[in-house]
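Data card: per-record layout.
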Amino acid sequence: MSKKKISIRTSLMTGVSYMVPVIVAGGLCIGIARILGGYDVGNAEGTIGYMINQIGNASMSFIVPVLAAAIAYSIAERPGIAPGLVAGYLSTQIQAGFLGGIFGGLLAGYVVAAIIKYIKLPKTMQGLMPIIVIPLISSLVVGLVMIVLIGPPIAALQSWILATMTSLQGGSKALLGSIIGAMMGFDLGGPVNKTACLFANGLLAEGVYGPTAAKLVGGMIPPLGVALSVLIARKKYTPSEHEAAKAALPMGLCFITEGVLPFAATDPIRVIVSTVAGSAVGGALTMLWGVESQIQAGGIFIVPFMNKPWMFMLALVIGSIVTALVLTLLKPAKPVTTEETEETVELDIDIK
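The structure for this 352-residue chain is written out next.
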């Protein structure tokens, strides 16, 4: 293994570069499936649309594991892949989302680096290091940390948020809509997002359809708003982000919030602040205007089935503009390149 200095930002950018093709393949497959089979394509077994949808779902399930494995690989090279995959998979199982995947990938990389540096075997046993010692110890350490230290707080957070939202059910509609929307735009598929979905789906089963519309608009705004920001402020984004925005647009229309993950992984604070702002506005407007949806997913394809489709579209446009404006204002004038990050965010870790 070569001797090099490790940059957290560079590791995140490596993770994103490996993750983007997975997101694009999965998101566009799901979009094509819904075009062919409608919003309910997931239940149309035996059709071409159903099969393509299955392919898309399979691809999307690898997003966080690939992100974590690539981050670990950028730190520890090939030995980091196995524990990185373990960390990413466990992150999906405990509903920690892409933020958990980032943490797990960094942890896996540094654990492997520490094993290589501090565990020394006799020369006759050196061959066991890459095939037994490193993958076994690193996977155990990373896995236990993810399950024992990350899992319980995530579960407690979900329970608390669900209880809080339930207590707000009888309050202001706009407030409830803004909370649902903000949660959808916060961790983009993580525990907070999933809790909002669970809450809205539970009310849908009881015949309360407003929260579902807020959930839908809150999940569609982030990728649409980020893509719009790239369009109006191209010089603030890298060429790779320009390409990611092209995929984010159709994914947003299909209610695939993961289209914004390539941006959130490398610049989480600015992106999450902007997506929360736009999704909160969109969710508040749908509830304020009495928009209802009896269908829990499907993106743009189910808008005609809503009671007020044009009001939903207006809330979607306004929320996307809010996200785009906030993100454009927060973004630095010049995109941060790999070379610049290596100079500003270096960690003095030598790997031999």
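Known properties of this structure: DSSP finds 14 helices and two strands in the chain. Confidence is low (pLDDT under 50) at residues 338-352.

See the next section for split statistics.
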